[in-house]
Amino acid sequence: MSSEHPPLADIREEAPSGAVSREASEPTLHNHAANHHEHPPHPHHPRPRRQSTASRVSVDFFDPEGMIEIRRTLTQDRAHQEKDEKPRAASTGGSSTDSDNTLAAGGDGFDLEKTIRQIVRRYVAQTRFSVVAAERLLDVTKPKSSPVHLELLSEPCAFRVSVLLPRTSLPLVPVLNPLSIFEGIKTSRHPPLKDILSGFEGVVKPGEMLLVLGSPGAGCSTLLKTVANHRDEYYAVDGEVHYDSISPGDLQKYFRGDVQYCPEDDVHFPTLSVEQTLDFAGRTRTPRNRSDYSRAQFRETLTTILTTVFGLRHARKTPVGNAAVRGVSGGEKKRVSIAEYLATRACIGCWDNSTRGLDASTALEFVRALRIATDTMNLGTVVSLYQAGESLYQHFDKVCVIYEGRMAYFGPADKAKGYFIEMGYEPANRQTTPDFLVAVTDPGARILRAGFTAQPRTADEFAEFFRASKAGKENTAEVEQYISEYSGKDERAHAYAQSARAEFAKRSGKKNPYMLTIPQQVAAVMRRKVQIIRGNMLATGLNLFSYIFQAIIMGTVFLRMPEETTAFFSRGGVLFFSLLFSALATMSEIPSLYSQREIVLRHEKAALYHPFVEALAHTLVDVPITLVIMIVFSVLLYFMIGLQRSAEQFFIFFLFLFTMSLTMKSWFRAIAAAFKSEATAQAFAGISTLALAIYTGYTIPKPSMIGALRWITYINPFRYGFEAILTNEFRTLKGACTTLVPQGPGYENVSLANQVCATVGAQPGQDYVDGALFTSLSYGFSYSNIWKNFGIIIAFGVGFTIALLIFAEYNTSTSGSSSVTLFKKGSKTKKATKSTSNGDEEKGGPTSPIVDEKRGAPAALDDVKPPPQTDVFTWKNVNYSVPIPGEADRKLLADISGFVAPGKLTALMGESGAGKTTLLNVLAKRVYVGVVSGDMFVNGQALPADFQAQTGYVQQMDTHVPFSTVREALLFSAKLRQPPFRAPRREGSLICGLEEYAEAAIGSLNIEFRKRTTIAVELAAKPKLLLFLDEPTSGLDSQSAWAIVSFLRSLADQGQAILCTIHQPSAELFQAFDRMLLLKKGGQTVYFGDLGSNSTTMIDYFERNGARKCEGFENPAEYMLDVIGAGATATAAQDWYGIWQASPEASATQDQIDAIHTEGRSRPAVETALHSEFATPWFVQVKELFMREAQAYWRDPTYLMAKFALNVIAGLFVGFTFYKSKDTQQGTQNKLFAIFMITIISVPLASQLMVPFINTRNIYEIRERPSRMYSWTALITAQIMIEIPWNVITADSSVLHLVLDCWIPQ
Predict the structure, then answer these.
(1) Of 52, 112, 390, 401, which residue is 20 to 30 A from 1091 by alpha carbon distance?
(2) Where is pLDDT greater, at 523 or 86?
(3) What pairs with residue 203 in β-bridges?
(4) 853: exposed, middle or buried (Cβ count in 10 Å: 0-12, 13-18, 19+)
(5) Average confidence (pLDDT) over 187-214
(6) Which has more confidence, 878 or 1204?
(7) Host H or E run for residue 75
(8) Distance from CA of residue 224 to its chain's centroid?
(9) CB 243 within 8 A of CB 137
(10) How far apart are CA 760 and CA 770, in angstroms?
(11) Taking the complete model, does pTM exceed 0.85, yes or no?
(12) SS3 assignment for 1068-1122
């Protein structure tokens, strides 16, 4: 085996493009100096990269103009500071030594990066420690001090991360089976475990970036979470992880905010602006000592620097946004996450696959932003990436390659490729280094090197080979050196703690990791809560509208209620409703509280604030909002009904209504905080509402309550509130008697002295009834208890709030999803069972598909036989504009022309925001707003009426019913989208290499196999004309992406016409496409045509029109984005849109389209296969939807058990409350109220139903409605039908208990 190999000779920096150069400003992996700057040159002194060959990015890369402004501002600030320091220095007889010469105002030696580093870390120079060698990174103020190091894993044999495997079954039967109890006991004693990681060691120092590579399921996310000290979700973490001399336990307890884990999804409050998001992070991590800067000045300067460094100045006032709220772009959102992380001033950051969904140029900018942050702040950065390009790879110092949970390599990034070449593997043609490193760990993708026969093959062999290699020994030596120098040094740990505590607020406490005191945290979170509410005023407005609507309804029903005895009961009912509605309306907050848990949990782990602070701030901010709403509600209800018109009585009514509203808000929020599952919380909230409503004292008076449950009235705040407002209303009421007895024939001359009113509380000789006496005799209420009751309600409110704060602090997680693939009970999946042993323990599912040994293409494609196609889809001069309120219409697509021919795989590419998905939606007839112009034809003739039914559309989001199996999803699609005469064959319905996972639940599959399922669902409909795909490789690793694209290539080779958007394709992936349509921002065409062999046709076009030469080692997909100026910070010297319009290629494209039209019009038009909106009759749709919902319900035990519990407990509760009611007037009334109260269960039942129904509706709106699978009425009918049997079964138990307990006579 040869040992001499040149290190990565084929990796160089990209050549300059246009006005912006993409090269690094320091020596690269090619080991030669770059003689230019990435932006116009400025005084700058490069800092050596600690013997690393990683590319460096200038701090002004994203916004050079903004950095010039910051440079000018900081220079002026420094000049003022030095001017102020000179008198002090003269008075002390010395000179100031706190200033570095690099910070000299106006001097040639001004170091902008060092200045920013000083400012972002801290603004104070006074607080320094004598133990310089162990200073905390955030407090480093002397150039030669030794910052905190991060040692990842110290002992390779001892370090192990284990996860608890759940039971791999689906339906409700295991939950109801009594034998499952014994199985649960057995499992708790001997839990099935799976080792995710084993035998890792390495060091990441400040200023270094580590890239973690591996196939899905290899353990990349687990490694990052373990490094970030997030261990709660794992059964056990064995081995040692050192953070300088700080133990993981101490780090978690005292310095948790110094190490952060950033998930692949950017989770932020969508209605907050970019500026507000960064300001809040800076506010919660502002140090105590800031020299002459106030807290506000510190935050403002910090936000300005971060938004400028990361090119976000233009988006400071823009909402961050999410899938439902329009906000910044995907690339900008990634930079917001980086800026937020830097605003917290953490020392170590772990980024998990954060480039998912970004195009190559935006992903490169993301990594460059991390490089700037790492260099500027001297941080330790760990990043896991899928489909990492060569230009991304060059920015990393080290790389860790993981093979099925074992460490295949850990060391310098520039030596990794040579290491595996020496091992006996070689890269494919144009294969990037990251792709090669991942391919080596995939038996179906790696290429053996000629002349080598003893290569390691298994994960254990790779790990053993590395430990025995020179690279492994060097890594071990570095670990041992680190341990001897930094680990276990008490003086370093003490100095670190002392340095860290110097930044904490004075009264923040020494036993927690939070930098601010509790009042400061509450103030910061309250400010953010107000900003969130202001960003979504519609929700608050709808809440106010609901109260106004209910007040008007009740006020008109009981308009100007007479002061008569016949209205006594109705008057009490109105007062009872006013309390009950405030409680029921508060239940609607439960879903929103669950939606923000993920954000609060992330902030808690970043040590921004206590979780209970979020709950407390929400409660405090809600007080004035509730006050306004209750004032409007009370005024409308009180005066429309005509209650006692006394200022004292009105304000008492309002006071108790307002206080009860706040108390019940705390109650329901505490319920939401106490449970991990939303369905369980809804069930408990429903039962509690029933108990509160029954034992208020209105539906069943206290004297009629059974003794066993009468105690509930004493712990019911409703009872005290109802007594207060009822006695407050009736104490001055003199109800005119409407029925005096005796009266009638024979009693005409009876005087009033001999008559009495037939109402409780009547006195002989009086034609009215005293309201106070009525309430005392009927309900046992007294007005003298009113202020005692108010105090009790306050006590309940305080108690509920305390419970809310406790639950919010200690129960921050939600019910998680399974970590392994779930198969249908009793299914025969021999191969799949074997595959799942190596599944994705982090994200669920198998690791890799069955692939061809040579290049990773799917092995089983024989079942996929697309119908023969000869029809060509064309579009000409397509434009699309959308209206913008208050502005002119925005044009998203501009005069785009092209075609997709059968048997050809056409790529639709461009940077983020270029309009790729927009064009795909326009062509697929899936846009519902805006104006579309231009022509779209099939064979030069009008589109068939059922064009959407004859095409398939694979969306970027894999939206499926999570409980359905793969086979069921494919059959469902085939049955509803194919005509009845073309019945799908069950055995032939599995395609896309999904045979082994036919009976697996889609929700438990990993991302690759969910993507395969999404494609298969569309192919099951047998699209006749065209298949659209929107970023099918997004989020996949390089091998999975290759498997998907190879599968598409096979479909195209069999005659399928395919138009596909794609992000971050490698060079070999790019070669699978025949043609490409390239767009730039504004939806403008840059190129359309054949790619040619090795993309030579496309490259030749750009080079002929003034682009730089494409080097032989470059990825053509990245090259073309580079030359057209793709990315948020790049520009191009040429107008490539104008060049295309004037090019002969554009003319040739128009000629081709005209020729296609001419030839197509000579033959018959494409027939309309479906003459109705849907392929199947309405009853067939209902049947299939009912079957799918029945399976989903049966496999969701949490929902069904919550429904059972709610009905059974409610039935028992109501039944025993009205136990054996007598056949008296009061007993008959109690029976009627029992029936009424049992109907209240419909409110929590409806709230429970909202969760699965909204999930199903989302699937319908996102994927199934645009595909015309079934009608909306069929979905609603099936939803109602599936609820009927379950509600009958569960409601029967309620009614049975009610009948047995209430109506069986004594």
Answers:
(1) 390
(2) 523
(3) 151
(4) exposed
(5) 83
(6) 878
(7) helix 64-91
(8) 18
(9) no
(10) 10
(11) no
(12) HHHCCCCEEEEEECCCEEEEEEECCHHHHHHHHHHHHCCCCCCCCCCCHHHHHHH
